[in-house]
């Protein structure tokens, strides 16, 4: 009991300090007044800067050009397309598929609020799903899960257009399973099938049929892909949480896409779940719980009460005024989960906050839940999500927007090869593997190319940001950071329009 009281007291003090911090920056918030509509458009534009493959005439980030056109050749298949995951030139399917799932979920939940950005959201999703379909169907009995040797790539600093590192092809198979990456790919394909169901029914059907096969593969041949692929994916995108969360996540999305009892049975057969206090490309439990809770709240389906309870347990670990909170906050009010790429957790948790609040608001009578003696309503979750989004957009102690190209003060020296090196137009000569380190990587000058909309890893626990290209844990953008903020940005942009 003494420990519980101490925990409550510490949490209460933390919450008070957060409220004091936000009151301190109240005038600043009013002066900054984030433009969610602009930020939403830029958050989607970012994905064009991460494209691999042959770029279309509609490409708006024009300092990028064609790259990776021969990807897959070492396996005699076409694996061109898809996205580079972050500031490097590698295609890792685990984070790419998660990015796709989150873009699809954002579009499904907030499609109307996306307004004129809906076609751009669909285009960002389709760029990924066209590639994921190739990976899932190119060779019977095999699923391709990545292109490019990450160890060789990370020793280089060169534009994707100049890549001269080996474009190794990685796959999983019955003898070398990868339930995690296959489960996430199934989730991405199933979620995307719902996005395209009204606009391209034939494509949606292909996505759903492929999702079924990929999830079946993940279930039938169980194992973690990082156990088999080793240094080809670790420590970059190891499956630290195991693969059960991806099986649950994939089954949950196929259940939403089909409403078939077989997927409900798979969900139930996976048994009790871990209950983490974060949500990421690696750990999907809390996302699956929120997704499945929709059935309990929106459809009043008693069979899904367990997931509603787990979703609320998660919220109680996030809310700063909850006696069960396990989430740290900076003095400026930002959630602080881990030192490296912290904003990926901020954006993904903010998505769950707004989405669960949306489900709560769908009930016939006002719905609340308790974190101990604390009563939580939908607006409590929305308010916290808004604080996080506003912080990212510049409402913070140093008035730094962590979205590149948004606001007057944003990161200028991001850890990103294409952004930090001169474009092919201005420097047509090839820049080899080590050619980009001097004078470009080591330079203190701002990057020559603006990767509009990119959200970087973010500030440190003291709300500081050095804007240092070599500090990748804070200055590197990633597709999964951006994908998760699309939903909250659409929510707040749509709220202003309505």
From TrEMBL:
Determine the domain of life of the protein's source: Eukaryota
Question: A Gene Ontology molecular-function term?
Answer: cellulase activity
Choose any GO biological process term that the UniProt entry carries and state it: cellulose catabolic process
The signal peptide stretch is: 1-29
Q: Which SUPFAM superfamilies match?
A: Six-hairpin glycosidases
Instruction: Fetch the Pfam families from UniProt.
Output: Glyco_hydro_9
Q: What class of enzyme is it?
A: hydrolase
> Active site: which residues?
415, 467, 476
- Any idea of its EC number? 3.2.1.4
Tell me which family the UniProt entry assigns to this protein.
Answer: Belongs to the glycosyl hydrolase 9 (cellulase E) family.
Q: What is this protein called?
A: Endoglucanase
């Amino acid at each position: 009991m003494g420990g519980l009281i101490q925990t409550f007291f510490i949490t209460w003090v933390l919450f008070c300090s957060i409220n004091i911090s936000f009151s301190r920056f109240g005038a600043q918030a009013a002066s900054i007044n984030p433009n969610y509509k602009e930020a939403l458009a830029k958050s989607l534009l970012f994905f064009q800067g991460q494209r691999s493959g042959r770029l279309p005439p509609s490409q708006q980030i024009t300092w990028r050009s064609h790259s990776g056109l021969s990807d897959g050749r070492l396996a005699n298949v076409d694996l061109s397309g898809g996205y580079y995951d972050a500031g490097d030139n590698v295609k890792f399917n685990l984070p790419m598929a998660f990015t796709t799932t989150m873009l699809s979920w954002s579009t499904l939940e907030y499609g109307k609020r996306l307004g004129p950005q809906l076609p751009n959201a669909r285009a960002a999703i389709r760029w990924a799903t066209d590639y994921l379909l190739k990976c899932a169907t190119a060779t019977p009995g095999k699923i391709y899960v990545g292109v490019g040797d990450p160890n060789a790539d990370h020793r280089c600093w060169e534009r994707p257009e100049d890549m001269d590192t080996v474009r190794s092809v990685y796959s999983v198979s019955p003898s070398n399973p990868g339930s995690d990456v296959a489960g996430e790919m199934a989730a991405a394909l199933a979620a995307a099938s719902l996005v395209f169901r009204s606009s391209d029914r034939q494509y949606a059907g292909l996505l759903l049929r492929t999702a079924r096969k990929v999830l079946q593969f993940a279930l039938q041949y169980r194992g973690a892909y990082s156990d088999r692929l080793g240094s080809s994916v670790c420590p970059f995108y190891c499956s630290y949480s195991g693969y059960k969360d991806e099986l649950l996540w994939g089954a949950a999305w196929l259940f939403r896409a089909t409403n078939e009892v077989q997927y409900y049975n798979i969900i139930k057969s996976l048994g009790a779940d871990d209950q983490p206090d974060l949500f990421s490309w690696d750990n999907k439990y809390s996302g699956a719980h929120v997704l499945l809770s929709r059935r309990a709240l929106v459809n009043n389906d008693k069979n899904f009460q367990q997931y509603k309870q787990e979703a609320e347990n998660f919220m109680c670990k996030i809310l700063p005024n909850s006696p069960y909170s396990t989430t740290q906050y900076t003095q400026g009010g930002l959630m602080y989960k881990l030192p490296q790429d912290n904003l990926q957790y901020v954006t993904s948790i903010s998505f769950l906050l707004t989405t669960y609040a949306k489900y709560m608001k769908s009930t016939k009578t006002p719905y609340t839940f308790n974190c101990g003696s604390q009563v939580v309503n939908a607006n409590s979750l929305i308010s916290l999500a808004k604080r996080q989004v506003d912080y990212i957009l510049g409402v913070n102690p140093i008035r730094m927007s962590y979205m590149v190209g948004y606001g007057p003060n944003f990161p200028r020296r991001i850890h990103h090869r294409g952004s930090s090196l001169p474009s092919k137009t201005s420097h047509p000569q090839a820049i080899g593997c080590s050619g980009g380190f001097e004078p470009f990587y080591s330079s203190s000058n701002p990057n020559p190319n603006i990767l509009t909309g990119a959200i970087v890893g973010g500030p440190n626990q003291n709300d500081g940001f050095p804007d240092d290209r070599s500090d990748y844990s804070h200055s590197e953008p990633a597709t999964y950071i951006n994908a998760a903020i699309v939903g909250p940005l659409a929510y707040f942009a749509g709220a202003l329009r309505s």
